[in-house]
Amino acid sequence: MLRIATSVSTYPFFNFRYLKLMDELAKRFEFYCFAGSSLPSKVGQAATRAKVIRVLPFRVPRRIMYKIRPLVSGMWINAVQPDVVWLFDTAGPMLPLMFEKPVVLDAEDPYILLPGNKSRLKTLNEFRLLREKSVEAIVVTTEIIRRKFIKLGIEPKKIHVIPYGVDVRLFQPSPLPKEPLVLYYGTFQEHRARLLAEVVEHTCRMDAEVKFLLVGDVPAWFKHRIERMGCRDRAQMPGFIPHDELPKWLEKARICLLPQDRSLGGRLSFKLLEYMAAGRPVVATDVEESFPVRESGAGVVVPVDAKAMAEAIVELLRDSKAAEEMARKGIHYSRKYDWELMVRKYVALFEGLS
What we know:
The structure is a single chain. This protein has 14 helices and 13 strands. The protein has a 7-stranded parallel β-sheet with strand order 3-2-1-4-5-6-7, sandwiched between helices. A 6-stranded parallel β-sheet has the order 10-9-8-11-12-13, sandwiched between helices. 41% of the residues lie in helices and 19% in strands.
């Protein structure tokens, strides 16, 4: 049986995609995951078939762990003699030169993908890793990123496009509800949250019936701003929801949102794929990451402007025929990104390198 080894800063961690992917790969291979530290099991999908091993039997300060973890993890990885080393967590950089076996590097950090940022890229560990000769394969999620890497001088044959997948058995379509409820779930980082707050304000002014469902770890400043706007009773914020429970929340929504005020390098948003698989039309801003909406016709793409986004929301809430047609297109489009197809591509890549 093929033996795969990886290293992460902490386990469990909050990227459900890699947690689930690790579990799927552990069904097929002998899989080792070496973790620098542990987090509370707040993370929903913490269980995995992979062999998870703490690299140190005692706790050390995080700033020290980030320094020594790559070296200690590297020693552990070499000790289990893997056929392939898979690196996807770059918070504590690994050193590919220390491995004798092929290294597969997942490159999805937005900082390395931002356009016009080449001077900064040269100082990043991630960019150095891309150029390491011992890295035999680099995985990216879109053709957009692949083209950017080629322009940066990365060998085209090393770059493999494996898109995010959507579990179409978990995210299944359901009829659009009549209630004018608009949903967003995900991170509330500045590049989304500030625009989202403005969208809520404008939409509430335009339509007295519309309500919002905002799922995730909502920061205090966002809640306070919604209250100052007078929209608190129109915005439900249930907090963090485990990923596998999201479909029942999606069933409540008539429209879903991708509010983003700038491009983050052209990554594929699994959020959009899940919206589409559930049969929900999307209103998104005109950034690189909204390309699935443009390609599929599963929603409306508007300029990066809160008022324009609010107008599109109100118009789509009132146009049932358009909303239902967009929902159908999204369901059809999402089938191309079935989770099982993504897993098979990883399996083929690892087997081809071993």
